[in-house]
Design brief:
This protein is an all-alpha fold and 473 residues long. The protein has a domain of 209 residues.
Length: 473
Amino acid sequence: MNENLSALLPELALAGGAVIGLLAGSWLPRHRQWAVAALAVAACVTGLAATAVTMATRGEQAVFSQAFAVDTATDAGRLIVLGALLLVVAMSVETVRGHKRESEYWVLLLMTGAGTLAMIGANDLLMLFAAYLLASIPAYALSAFAKDAPGTEAALKYYLMGALLGTTMLAGTALLYGAGHATLYPQLRAALPSAPYALVTVGLVAVLAGLLFKAGAVPAHFWVPDVTQGAPTPVAAYVTTLPKIGGLIAGYRLLHQALADSGVNWPLLLAILAAATMTLGNLAAFFQTSVKRLLAYSTISQVGYLLMALAVATRTDLAQKGLLFYLAAYAATNLGAFAVVTELPEARDLADYRGLARRHPGLAAVLVVCLLGLVGTPPTGVFLGKLEIFSATIDGGYTWLAALAVANTVASLFYYLRWLAPLFTTADPAPAGAHAVLGRWAAATAYTAGALSLALGVAGGTVLPFATGPLLP
């Protein structure tokens, strides 16, 4: 048994920061609760530094009875999650500053971040389910942080769907254990080919249900628009970004490491789910007028593109590289758009953005970069991510899915332009109150995320090799 705690430094940094923050927040005066935010930043920076050291000095390893794998996907996922968590912390400063539950907000963020990291490296079904719970339960509380009617309703829907699909996931874990007499992925890979086909199929579908919930994919997507609309905007940015990273990388590892030789035709199932997710997300976004609901359906469509990599996980070596790079580009781009929405709390509808380019040209520029980036316009990172995933899908034998994805990409331009066009309207601009800014932290987050989106596109050739490497055997 390899009990190397240093291999889990990023996860321990977040978990330790959450515990210390919870204790410190109980005696810190309200005007000094910001110290817990500083602790959250320190935990994320520590995790990033530990990940960089791991990538530079160590190879792949499995720790604690092989329940947790440290390899290329884990390290890349850690960098994405911790970087995204830093952006969420920064855009949250003005929203929660001075709040009577400020320290609890930062603690919940750290806890759900630790759960997301645990999902990314899970190499065992029981570890995966425990990580699912740790990533989910604090997020339910964050959704209702404002304690108003929309937030309470959103949190209730989020919790009920998470509990239902979490129970389904646990049942699937039991079925796969019954089929393979193991929960570790390497042992399942060896045992499942000779197990009853129906048992493996039902178990896999049930486990995937929980992961699809975390990712916000069809048919487990119903919570996404309501939670995005009802939760505070930084929380909406979180729930539409980080859970997807954990769910998709965890799903990729499960399919690639445990189900590769099972005989179940899960590639076709994932291809159909990808097609349905991207198409439904785009169609539902077409006539949205609320900017938060539009971004919610946009994130659903983005998950459809990302699921393409899971559909060809074992069919091409390009799938992992495309998935990891797209996740990094998507995280920066989506958080940049949400940071602009956070900075303009009174601009709730598309019409409220009329004339923004004249009053706040910097924010308008970030919004242009991020929204066109979500379409997949060069030279943004999402463009290169889509190119990689579309290429992997064709290489994996699903040319029809890649063609559908291209058609969806073109169609998505319509609703993004519905938001972008009013930015440059000079006649009948929105009232000045609609463009009142929140503060410097949210604006700085928007500029940083927009710059990262562009940097990933321009320097993609330098970044992509870090997403290329074997998973733990």
